[in-house]
Amino acid sequence: xxxxxxxxxxxxxxxxxxxxxxxxxxxxxxxxxxxxxxxxxxxxxxxxxxxxxxxxxxxxxxxxxxxxxxxxxxxxxxxxxxxxxxxxxxxxxxxxxxxxxxxxxxxxxxxxxxxxxxxxxxxxxxxxxxxxxxxxxxxxxxxxxxxxxxxxxxxxxxxxxxxxxxxxxxxxxxxxxxxxxxxxxxxxxxxxxxxxxxxxxxxxxxxxxxxxxxxxxxxxxxxxxxxxxxxxxxxxxxxxxxxxxxxxxxxxxxxxxxxxxxxxxxxxxxxxxxxxxxxxxxxxxxxxxxxxxxxxxxxxxxxxxxxxxxxxxxxxxxxxxxxxxxxxxxxxxxxxxxxxxxxxxxxxxxxxxxx
Length: 355
Hints:
Elements: E1 2-6, E2 19-22, E3 43-47, H1 54-60, E4 66-68, H2 78-81, E5 89-93, H3 101-106, E6 110-114, H4 122-136, H5 139-147, E7 163-167, H6 171-182, E8 186-190, H7 193-201, E9 205-206, H8 210-216, E10 219-222, H9 236-239, E11 247-250, H10 261-268, E12 273-276, E13 297-299, H11 308-326, H12 337-345
Parallel strand pairs: 2-3, 2-4, 4-5, 5-6, 7-8, 7-10, 8-9, 10-11, 11-12, 12-13
Antiparallel strand pairs: 1-3
């Protein structure tokens, strides 16, 4: 589904009118946000479905000058960029493993992505805690049983006095650690050394080793960015060290865990439970996906950051990046080499036409 918004009535819009495309707005939410007014005066096309088909994307985006991405829902490959001759700017927020930055630089496409230092995704932290409670108290299964006419299908577990393991002590991890303390849990952290220092300063316990971390914790929650250094950082051997009563929670990235290792570990009984919001390939349409068929797994469809409040925060910054570009002063630029090249050729940021 596609919808186009044209509003050239605002004379205060800086710079020229731009052809803007927004991908993967599944629920057509962005136009209902207050920050959407920041795009007034531009020609905006919003796509509500998802595709990764190269020909389809190239056709949809052939006239696009500014591309807005919702996190990592669509990969922007070199092959796609080769066909987008009008593209000038990609505006998004947070990390960008889904964008071929080198290809963007070769084509003179600026990538603006605010890294929002000091601002965690409170929505993701809250969902993480919701998944922990849902899994430990068997809430989805208990509800399904009640709807089926059954009454109390099992006995859950209390969090108080158990050990919460936070793997990766950044903005979201530290927030989840605070929730654990509020629930009377012992919080143990494993992370890179700089993060461990912050964890100690916040009164958390640092695990003696990675092995001890996996063996000791009753709940482990992953909170790391997906980089080459963190891809597959949780191995099958480490999962096998977890207690048969333990819970593994992942609201960060599925690829932090060795491929296929979590499903295999759950079948083997260590850990005994999992709660996940992220998957190796998204969106998940296959109802026979291994994690969706297990009674000891709580699954949600990557909704960690999907709240109206979080969207407003994120897209206000994304749309501000577009305004800055139109004013000739791009901000949060990931590939500043493009700016250097343009300054030497005196190529303008504004204007229409192919690059």
